[in-house]
Amino acid sequence: MTPRQSSPVWLRLWHRFAEVERNSFLAGARFFAPSLPAVFSWGLVTGVAMSKSALTVPEAIGMSLLVYAGSAQLAVLPLFAAGLPIWTVWLTAAVVNLRFVIFSAALQPHFSYLPLWRRTALGFFNGDLHFVYFMQRYTEPGYAPGKEGYFWGMALINAMTWQVSSIIGIVLASLFPDSWGLGLAGTMALIPVMIATINSRSTLMAVVVSAVLALLCFDLPYRLSLVVAVVGAIAAGMASDELAARATLRAIRARKATHPQTGDRA
Q1: Angle of helix 36-51 relative to helix 183-196, nearest 10 degrees?
Q2: Is-contact 150 22, C-beta < 8 A?
Q3: 123: enclosing H helix or E strand
Q4: Same domain, 129 and 227
Q5: 198-217 pLDDT tens trace
Q6: How many Å separate Cα 257 from the centre of its chain?
Q7: Residue 173 and residue 69 share a domain
Q8: 207, 237 Cβ separation under 8 angstroms
Q9: Residue 266 in this model has a pLDDT that exceeds 50
Q10: Structural domain for 211, as ranges
């Protein structure tokens, strides 16, 4: 048995594709990665909304997997709750998703050489954001090495993030009382967005301090806990920046003291 044959199935499938397509797939996934917190938040909100609607948990999960269109999913939830005929639900979803007919028409010149089943798969996994990114990168129609791989790199990472976040929202929301409503969805949606903004020690310090203060002061009247948390976050961030600046200054002075000539030339 060759090393290739003894490798996992997914790895053998991966190597069946041309190297240029594999590299483009990874490039597309890397390019789309900064957009994942927003996708995660949107999927989370949609999952919570479906779980708190007239759908059961299995129905909501099935809808997420089969429909895969956040706007349409949210648009038809009131129709399900009102018990309207199924044709009304289908028509509403079709109208909301009419933009994908335009998207498909725009993608057709790029992938017209592919068989029908592959073009159908591309259409199902198409989405607003990575469609825009794809069209910005590839302005010329027709075949180009790596074009399909780049599209799938963005499409699959978007789809996986959406389904994971949507199912998390569905399952978690089913565990909480209905009285929490969509306020829970808003809170949960802000969590990944907030985490994505933590890119420095001062920001992390501000988030931690504000969270602790908000919990400690939760019972204050007029929601003054929010004011205390915001002020504490600002103070913590400024203090952290000041300490970092002083540490940098001390390091520079220590370097100059150790290497005075190097410091003078700098």
Answers
A1: 170
A2: no
A3: helix 116-124
A4: no
A5: 777 778 888 888 889 888 88
A6: 48
A7: yes
A8: no
A9: no
A10: 198-265
